[in-house]
Design a protein that fits this description.
This protein is of the alpha+beta class. It contains eight helices and nine strands. Strands 4-3-2-1-5 form a five-stranded antiparallel β-sheet.
Amino acid sequence: MEAFAALCATVVGRVLLSALAYLVGRFIIKKLMAWIEKIKGISSLDPNVRTFTVSAIKWLLYLILVVSIVSILGVPMASVITVLGTAGAAIALALQGSLSNLAGGVMLLIFKPFQVGEFIETNGVQGVVSAINLFYTVLTTPDNKRINVPNGGLMNAVVVDYSAEPTRRVDLTFLTAKSEKPAEIQAMMRQVMESNEKVLKDPAPFAQVSGGTSEAMEFTVRAWCATANYWDVHFALAQAITEKLGEAGVKAPAVRVISE
C-alpha cells in the first residue's frame, strides 16, 4: 500500500511538474517569438519566407518543449528519439517532391533570380511571372493561360529573363533580289529605324549585308529599344521596312525573324 501511495505521489508530482513546464515553456516561446519577429534580418525577408521561417522556429521550439515534458514524465529518451526519427524519415519520404518544391521556393524568394511582373522562359514554357509561392511559381502566358511551375525543378533549370535588363535588341532579316544596290537598301533601312521614336540612338541602328544566295541578298537589321517597347518596335520595323522597300521598287522584299 505504501509503495502504491509512493508511486501515485511520484506520478502526480511528475504530471504537475510537466504542466508547470508546459505553462512556463509556452510563455517563454511566446516572448521569444515576439522578439524574433522584430529582428531586422527576419523582418526584412520576403513575406512568404518570413512566415515560413517564423513558423519553422516556432514548431522547433514547441518540439523541444514536448520532448522536455516527455522526459519529465519519465519516458526513456532513447525511445522518444527513435520514434521521432522514424516518423521524420517516413514523412520526408512521403513528401519528397513537396519538400523539394518548398526548398526551391525558399531559395527563389531569398536569392530572387527573377521578379514578379518579369517575362521569363524556363522548362519549355514562357510567360509573365504573376506569383512566386513557396511551392509553385505562377506564369501567365501571352495568350492568357496560367502555368504553375514547380519550384524544385525551376530552381535547377535554365531561366531566360527577358525583362531583367532595361534595353533589348530587335533582330530582323530581310531578303532582296541580287540585282539591288546594297548601299541604297541599307540607307533606307537605317532611315526607317532612325525615324522610329522608340528606337534608341545609342547603340546606333545597324543594317548590313549578312549573306545571300545566287538569287538573293540577306540584310540583317538590328535596333535597340527599351525592354517594354520590344514587341512594338519589332512589329513596327518589320512592317515599315517592308513597306519602304516596296515603295522604292525593291524586288522581292521579305522578312523573317532571326531571334526574339
